[in-house]
Design brief:
- The protein is mainly α and about 180 residues long.
- The protein has nine helices and no strands.
- The longest helix has 28 residues, at about 75-100.
- The radius of gyration is 19 Å and the shape is globular.
Length: about 180
């Protein structure tokens, strides 16, 4: 039992320390730590991502809470993993904010941000590719055509109209419910 907690702390400490760029950017790291370790299946991971997008809070925190509960079977596991994933970036942000504010005009700071921005975009793109799997788009050709159509329609509605994303999520869920 204690071994499970220690493994969770170690996994989410790495996620918290090296999960730069926010939730989408850290998806591949979360997936590597929790699916490859056998704590959850790939299907459960994609379900967590979907649920995390519909519930308040960042995906890293939502996944930590859920995985902590699944692995340990207790609320304490959820609390431990949630605190483990939140505490390192909180401390690093406090330190970085202090340093960046004092040295805002430094060529070092400007250069670091110029290097970090494209990395974050790349990590988010990698998360998009990570989620393009059979669990999200179906196993059968007909399922894939329908789910890709829902994906493209959702993107177009959000990108080209002023319809709120929550409305699009609800409509996509209802569409899936009716079709599948």
């Amino acid at each position: 039992m204690l071994e499970d907690y220690l493994k969770l702390v170690w996994a989410y400490l790495k996620i918290g320390l090296f999960g730069f760029g926010g939730g989408y950017a850290m998806l591949s790291l979360i997936q590597r730590e929790v699916v490859d370790s056998g704590w959850i299946t790939s299907q459960m991971f994609t379900d967590i991502v979907a649920i995390s997008q519909m519930t308040p809070g960042p995906i890293g925190i939502n996944s930590a809470t859920y995985i902590g509960y699944v692995v340990t079977g207790s609320v304490l596991g959820s609390i431990v993993t949630t605190l483990t994933v939140v505490l390192p970036p909180f401390i690093l942000t406090l330190i970085a904010a202090h340093y960046i504010e004092r040295h805002r005009q430094s060529p070092f700071i400007k250069g670091a941000f110029m290097g970090l921005r494209p990395v974050v975009v790349g990590l988010i793109a990698s998360a998009a590719l990570l989620l393009m799997n059979s669990e999200n788009f179906g196993y059968e050709v007909s399922e894939r055509i329908i789910t890709i159509s829902i994906c493209v329609a959702s993107f177009c509605i959000v990108y080209f109209t002023r319809i709120h994303p929550i409305v699009v999520i609800i409509l996509a869920g209802l569409t899936g419910l009716l079709i599948f």
